C-alpha cells in the first residue's frame, strides 16, 4: 500500500509541477516512446534473466505490493515458540521433539504459530538445525558457522530480484535516450515542415529522455531498493533462530537462550524483557 502511495506522490509531484509551469499535458502522452522504452527494458530483462530469476522477481514484487514486514508480534511469537521447544528438550530430551521436527504442521507446538509455519525458510532452518543437533555431536561454534552458511546463501538468493531490477533501472535512462534519438530521426525527416510542427516533434522526442530518467529514479530504482530492504529484513528475522539455537546448544537455559534471541531483534520491533516474561508466564499457565 505504501508503495502505491509513494508512486502516486511521484506522479502528482512531477505532473503537478509541470502543470504549474503551464505545460501542455498532452505533449507528455507519447505512446511510441513508452513502447520503445518499456518494451526494450522488458526484453532486456528477459534476455538477462533465467526463468528462476524471473520467478524470483515476480515474487519479490508481490511481496512489495502485499506490504510484507515483520512486526513485534512476529518476533514475539518466534521467541515464545523457541522457548517451548527448548523447554521440552530440557525436560524430556532431544528425542521428544523428533515427531515435531519430522512433521511440523502436525506438531502441537508449531501448530500454535501459523505465521511461522507459513514461512518455509524459517521452518526449514529450525527443523534442519534440530535434526543436526539430534543426530550429531556438533559444537556450538560449528553450528553457528553452519547456520551462517545457510543464511548467507538464502540472503544471496533474496538479493537476486533487487539486483535484477536495479540493472533494469540503470538501463532506463539509456533507453530514454534511444527513444529520444529515434524521435529526432523522425523529426529530421520533417525538416521542411513549419517551425511549430518541428517544435512539436522535438518536444515529443525529448519526452523519451524524460520518461527514461523518471522511470529510473522515480519508480524502478526505488522498487529495487525496497526489494533489498525486504531481503535484509528476512535475514534479520532468520538470524534470531541462529542466535537462540547456538546459545541453547552451547548450554544456556531455555529462558537465557530466548533472551539471547530477543537481544538480536532490531530495536524498532524488539519486545521488551518484561513483555517476553509476561508472555512466557501466560504460556505456562
Question: What do you see in this structure?
Answer:
By secondary structure, the protein is mainly α. It has one domain. The protein is built from twelve helices and no strands. Helix 4 crosses helix 9 (140-188), helix 4 (51-66) packs across helix 10 and helix 8 runs antiparallel to helix 9 (140-188). It is elongated, with a radius of gyration of 27 Å. The two termini are 39 Å apart. The model has no long low-confidence stretch (mean pLDDT 90).
How would you summarize this macromolecular structure in one to three sentences?
The protein has 285 residues and is mostly helical. It has 12 helices and no strands.
Layout: helices, strands, pairs:
Blueprint: H1 2-20, H2 25-28, H3 31-48, H4 51-66, H5 72-92, H6 98-102, H7 114-117, H8 120-135, H9 140-188, H10 195-249, H11 254-263, H12 273-284
Rounded mean pLDDT is 90
- Quantity of strands, as a count: 0
SS field, number of helical segments = 12
Return the string of H and E elements.
HHHHHHHHHHHH
What fraction strand?
under 5%
Radius of gyration: 27 Å
Approximate helicity band = over 70%
Number of domains: 1
Major beta sheet summary: none
Low-confidence stretches: none
Structural class category: mainly alpha
Head-to-tail CA distance between termini? 39 Å
What sort of overall outline do the alpha carbons produce when their principal axes are compared?
Answer: elongated
Amino acid at each position: 500500500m505504501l508503495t502505491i502511495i509513494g508512486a502516486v506522490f511521484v506522479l502528482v509531484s512531477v505532473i503537478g509541477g509541470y502543470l504549474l509551469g503551464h505545460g501542455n499535458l498532452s505533449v507528455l502522452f507519447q505512446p511510441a516512446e513508452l513502447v520503445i522504452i518499456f518494451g526494450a527494458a522488458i526484453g532486456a530483462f528477459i534476455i538477462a534473466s533465467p526463468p528462476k530469476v524471473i520467478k524470483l522477481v515476480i515474487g519479490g514484487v508481490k511481496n512489495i505490493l502485499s506490504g510484507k514486514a515483520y512486526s513485534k508480534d512476529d518476533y514475539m511469537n518466534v521467541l515464545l515458540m523457541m522457548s517451548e521447544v527448548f523447554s521440552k528438550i530440557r525436560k524430556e530430551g532431544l528425542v521428544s521433539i523428533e515427531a515435531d521436527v519430522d512433521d511440523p504442521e502436525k506438531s502441537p507446538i508449531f501448530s500454535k504459530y501459523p505465521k511461522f509455519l507459513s514461512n518455509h525458510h524459517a521452518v526449514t532452518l529450525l527443523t534442519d538445525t534440530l535434526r543436526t543437533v539430534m543426530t550429531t555431536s556438533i559444537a556450538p561454534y560449528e553450528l553457528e558457522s553452519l547456520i551462517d552458511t545457510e543464511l548467507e546463501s538464502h540472503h544471496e538468493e533474496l538479493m537476486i530480484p533487487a539486483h535484477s531490477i536495479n540493472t533494469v533501472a540503470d538501463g532506463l535512462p539509456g533507453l530514454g535516450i534511444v527513444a529520444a534519438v529515434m524521435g529526432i530521426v523522425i523529426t529530421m525527416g520533417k525538416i521542411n515542415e513549419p517551425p511549430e510542427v518541428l517544435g512539436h516533434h522535438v518536444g515529443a522526442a525529448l519526452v523519451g529522455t524524460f520518461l527514461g530518467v523518471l522511470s529510473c529514479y522515480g519508480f524502478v530504482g526505488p522498487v529495487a531498493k525496497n526489494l533489498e530492504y525486504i531481503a535484509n529484513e528476512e535475514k534479520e528475522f532468520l538470524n534470531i533462530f541462529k542466535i537462540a539455537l547456538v546459545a541453547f546448544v552451547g548450554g544456556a537455559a531455555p529462558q537465557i537462550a530466548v533472551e539471547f534471541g530477543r537481544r538480536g531483534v532490531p530495536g524498532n520491533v524488539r519486545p521488551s524483557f518484561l513483555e517476553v516474561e509476561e508472555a512466557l508466564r501466560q504460556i505456562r499457565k
